[in-house]
Amino acid sequence: MSEPRAPKRLFIETYGCQMNVYDSERMRDVLGPLGYTVAEKPDDADLVILNTCHIREKATEKVYSEIGRLRAHKERRAAEGKGMTITIAGCVAQAEGEEIIRRAPEVDLVVGPQAYHKLPELIARVARKSGEQLATDFTAQEKFDRLPARAPDGVTAFLSIQEGCDKFCTFCVVPYTRGAEFSRPIADVLAEARALADKGVREITLLGQNVNAYHGGAAFTDLLSALAEIDTIARIRYMTSHPIETTDELIAMHGSEVKLMPYLHLPVQSGSDRILKAMNRKHDGAFYRDIISRVRAVRPDIALSTDFIVGFPGETEKEFEATMQLVNDLHFAAAFSFKYSSRPGTPAAAMVGQVSEDDKSRRLAVLQKRLFEQQTQFNASQVGRTLSVLVTGTGRRSGQKHGRSPYLQSVHFDDARARNGDIVEVHVTGSSQNSLSGEVSSLVRA
Ligand code: SAH
Ligand code: SF4
Ligand code: F3S
Question: Top-level EC class, please (predicted)?
Answer without folding.
Answer: transferase
